[in-house]
Amino acid sequence: MARSVTSQRKAINTAVAWAVGLLIFFPILWTILTSFKTEAQAINDPPLFLFFDWTLENYTVVQERSNYMRFLWNSVFIAGGSTILGVMIAIPAAWSMAFVPSKRTKDILLWMLSTKMLPAVGVLYPIYLIFIQFGLLDSRLGLVIVLMLINLPIIVWMLYTYFREIPGEILEAARMDGATLREEILYVLTPMAIPGIASTLLLNFILAWNEAFWTLNLTAAKAAPLTAFIASYSSPEGLFYAKLSAASTMAIAPILVLGWFSQKQLVRGLTFGAVK
Amino acid sequence: MGRITLDKVTKSFGDVEVIPPLDLTIEDGEFTVFVGPSGCGKSTLLRLIAGLEDISSGQIRIDGNDATHVPPSKRGLAMVFQSYALYPHMSVRKNIAFPLRMAKLDKAEQDRRVDQAAAVLNLADYLDRKPGQLSGGQRQRVAIGRAIVREPSAFLFDEPLSNLDAALRVGMRMEISELHKKLATTMVYVTHDQVEAMTMADKIVVLRAGHIEQVGSPLELYHNPRNLFVAGFIGSPTMNLISGPEAAKRDATTIGIRPEHITVSDKKGEWKGVVGVSEHLGSDTFFHIHDTGLAETITVRAGGEVGFRHGDTVHLTPREDVMHRFDAQGLRIA
């Protein structure tokens, strides 16, 4: 039976939802607005909201001072590479946990998740040393590996959840039809799990894109992605809010657009299996 | 081409032995049905033959070759699942062609075989649809189509009709039997429905708790059940099993008499009882008679025109020549 909702109630719900939405979006909006102010206006007291002299000066300065495209390319490479590599490793891992579970499968999953509870800085020192040893400092490959590893537990967990929704008999049918393990995963499991795999890819691309701790600590110039690009505009003295905002806007714009276009897929993937 | 031999095969899950040592031979071209109550191990046994479960000990031979450790994809068997297990993202054509694609057959040959199977199974008009757009019966046909295109040495059916409604089930039963006559390939069929077993099988294997209770043709099992379990399981309605003085009188612990082997009369007979529930099927009527002085309610089959009413007193006469006698262990006394 459908619940009846009065129009008054509906109006209140709408207002509350908008308020929460705006509250969450406000910092991003403020960053974007600030990027169009002069440095003086940016620190004006009281803060200026919409009525100021809009200028593109900060963008020009940022563009002149650093090579945005190089940072962007590094971000795309690192986020994309770590996500694809992660999914390639996670699909077989999640397959085995979902379809041939052992007594310890649940423990392994929990253990993997528990690594996410470890403060990253706790392993910075050893990882830094390993990076030096293997010549991976300030290399895109090094970051791809590290970001893949830190996101792997989440990828495995998500794929495991999606795979569990797929009836095992269909995979057995594939085996009876002569499919090898590789063919079974490639032609049957993966196509059936596409919505889940797509949202896993998206979410992890976003997580890797936004990752700052490792990218800041393990890169200098060559492999620095957009997070390092933002950080380079924060300085201990002088006025930098407007330029920092311009850099931030440029850094989040691509992922914002990606997120906007894929929100349906993201929501569908994240609620996959909850409603049949 | 499709002789399957099980030699002292066992299966345990952890400490639980679901299949104690078991020997069985399924002859080439035979339609063998595994039947038994749920949990008797019949599906497990089928999965062992398929290779979807590993056997704990023993040996499985297919056409004389040891297949014990051969993966399912290499055993040359095809399986039809209860849930159909179609690939939901592929069209009917691609579903049926999948085993051929895995066998790396060329495209023309794939198409030829798919079209041939589709013609046999009346699926020609549905080849471009997805499984989700088909009815249950059509889906089951696609699953069968997928099995026949690869020309396996044997077909394995795991309760393939359980998800269909009653009318469709009868139709599909005939289709599968027809298919067996046409292909003359070994078929192993698992069901809990003894009517399916009786109507389709060349050979029935009755299982209980992983044990084979009896192997034989449907009529052999019907007329000569080896023990009480088979006697009670095969036949519908079930055999009347009577113990106590009536059995002792005939030097047995339990006697069994089928409903059609008892005559019912309003005048005279060996046992006297009161009519309870009557089931009128038109051609036959089944009367359930109680208060006979026996511990059990007796089921009697009579012609459709026989019209006793609830509460009528009737007389029953069992046919002594077709009566089954069982000893204290439940085994048949010859």
Automatic annotation (TrEMBL), chain A:
Pfam families per the record? BPD_transp_1 (PF00528)
Q: Which InterPro entries match?
A: BP-dep_ABC_trans_perm, MetI-like, MetI-like_sf
Compartment annotation: Cell membrane
The primary site where this protein sits is membrane
- CDD domains with a match to the protein in the record: TM_PBP2 (cd06261)
GO biological process entries: transmembrane transport
Q: Identify its membrane topology class.
A: Multi-pass membrane protein
Keyword Cell division annotated: no
Q: Which residues cross the membrane?
A: 12-33, 71-96, 108-131, 143-163, 184-209, 240-261
> Which keywords label this protein?
Cell membrane, Membrane, Transmembrane, Transmembrane helix, Transport
Q: Name one GO cellular component term.
A: plasma membrane
PANTHER family in alphabetical order: INNER MEMBRANE ABC TRANSPORTER PERMEASE PROTEIN YCJP, MALTOSE TRANSPORT SYSTEM PERMEASE-RELATED
Family of this protein = Belongs to the binding-protein-dependent transport system permease family.
Protein name per UniProt: Sorbitol ABC transporter membrane protein /mannitol ABC transporter membrane protein
Q: What is the scientific name of the source organism?
A: Sulfitobacter mediterraneus
Automatic annotation (TrEMBL), chain B:
Q: Which InterPro entries match?
A: AAA+_ATPase, ABC_transporter-like_ATP-bd, ABC_transporter-like_CS, ABC_transpr_MalK-like, ABC_transpr_MalK/UgpC-like, Mo/tungstate-bd_C_term_dom, NA-bd_OB-fold, P-loop_NTPase
Q: Which residues cross the membrane?
A: none
| PROSITE patterns linked | ABC_TRANSPORTER_1 (PS00211), ABC_TRANSPORTER_2 (PS50893)
Q: Where is the ABC transporter domain?
A: 4-234
| Protein name according to UniProt | Sorbitol ABC transporter ATP-binding protein /mannitol ABC transporter ATP-binding protein
Q: Which GO terms describe its molecular function?
A: ABC-type maltose transporter activity; ATP binding; ATP hydrolysis activity
UniProtKB keywords: ATP-binding, Nucleotide-binding, Transport
This entry carries the following GO cellular component terms, namely: ATP-binding cassette (ABC) transporter complex, substrate-binding subunit-containing; maltose transport complex
Q: Which CDD domains match?
A: ABC_MalK_N (cd03301)
Q: What NCBIfam families does the record tag this protein with?
A: PRK11650.1 (NF008653)
Q: Which PANTHER family match?
A: MALTODEXTRIN IMPORT ATP-BINDING PROTEIN MSMX (PTHR43875), MALTOSE_MALTODEXTRIN IMPORT ATP-BINDING PROTEIN MALK (PTHR43875:SF3)
Source domain of life is: Bacteria
What family does the Swiss-Prot or TrEMBL record give for this protein?
Belongs to the ABC transporter superfamily.
